[in-house]
Protein: Nuclear export factor GLE1
Organism: Rhodococcoides kyotonense
Amino acid sequence: MNSFIRRASIVAGATSVALVVGAGAASAHVSVVAPGAEQGGYTVLTFRVPTESDTAATTSLRVELPDLNSARTQPIPGWTATVDKNGDGLATAVTWTAQPGSEVGPGQFQQFLLSAGPLPEEDTVSFPAVQTYDDGQVVEWTEETTGSEEPEHPAPMLSLAAASGSEHGGHGAATTSETSTEASSTSSSDNTARWIAGVALVLGALGAALGLGAAIRGRRS
């Protein structure tokens, strides 16, 4: 699981950087990306949070979660993270808060990573968010996108691919593959051993025949 989280974090970070470079300042909304995220699977969610204000800095971000079994934050220097859970122990929200001096200033953005799952078995999942500035301004990114027009403060949305089964069956598949490989290797070794034994018998018989022939010729001479 830890190796999966590390690989997913690297992929998510690289993709987020690419999106930032490609989009530039055209999109200043709070957004979420998770390359390869599947329905019912685990992934690393990357929330990209730009500061839209020209005079104030972002001091906190709160994101609502769809009742997840697992929600683990990645440490960010100068920021604290709190995961809220309901009575059933499911994660319902996560809040990142900046310590003094670590706010996201005007013209800057920050990325918040969350290892989460299993994701809902739906085509899309919404993560309503609330962004707070140090001047007291609060921006609610909670509006749903309907049709072709995007609202002023859309909620971060993530599209999910259909479940491939690799998340749940990967370990079993690996075990089966390893067992098959071991069986093939064992069979190959057995065949090789039999072949070598057969050659040894032939050479032994040939050696014995040659020795017997030499003995007979020696007696005749």
